[in-house]
Write a structure and sequence with these properties.
One of its GO terms (cellular component) is mitochondrial inner membrane. This protein has 263 residues and is mostly helical. Helix content is 70%, strand content 0%. The two termini are 16 Å apart. The structure holds N-trimethyllysine.
Amino acid sequence: MPVEEFVAGWISGALGLVLGHPFDTVKLLGFFKGMSFPIASIALVNSVLFGVYSNSLLALTATSHQERRTQPPSYTHVFIAGCTGGFLQAYFLAPFDLIKVRLQNQTEPRGQLGGPPPRYRGPMHCAASIFQKEGPRGLFRGAWALTLRDTPTLGIYFVTYEVLCRQYTPEGQNPSSATVLVAGGFAGIASWVTATPLDVIKSRMQMDGLKRRAYQGVLDCMVSSVRQEGPGVFFRGVTINSARAFPVNAVTFLSYEYLLRWG
Ligand SMILES: C[N+](C)(C)CCCC[C@H](N)C(=O)O
């Protein structure tokens, strides 16, 4: 199995993340809170995404990354491979994403004199205490919503990227850096806009049960969120998600493409 896609995915995901982290945290408080942990985790998750995507395309079309410029795969194949990558990366992402959401939502000032100690002292402590209080399955809270969020939207991600690249690249040539940046940026936006409704639900599922259990499952969470807050709830954060998505994914795709061309 070709492994360079996994390696390129690993590095490019980390680079994209450094750029996106301030956007990711500005929704909440504390700008650079917990930067090292997401870098390590997104590198792993992005490597699974790009590695599985590329190897699925290889299985579907019998072409390697290099051959795909001269024999471009159909968009259906791109979509299926993207969904497969999205589905598998969701399981790697789930515990990391849960810890991120729990830590970012913890806005009490750290270690204030006289104040109550924070529930989680950092990513490791957060993981250990979820494991202790909620069991190993607790680390996968919200994983189902995350899978539903990521499977189709990562199909959309790679299709958008391919459509835009092909639009602006003469046949048989590699896309220019500018094209890769723009196509990657819009792929990120398209994917995040369509993922936002389930992103809202996913985060609620991940925070559920800390005080008391509010939702029975994904559907119940959707229904009661809409009832209480109206359909606008599904677009909460869509602007900040898109603003973050453009630079993160422009850099992710640019570094991915270049690492593979040099490799
Ligand atoms: C599918 N969904 C839109 C949720 C994620 C897209 C992942 C792409 C990139 N790692 C990023 O964080 O933007």
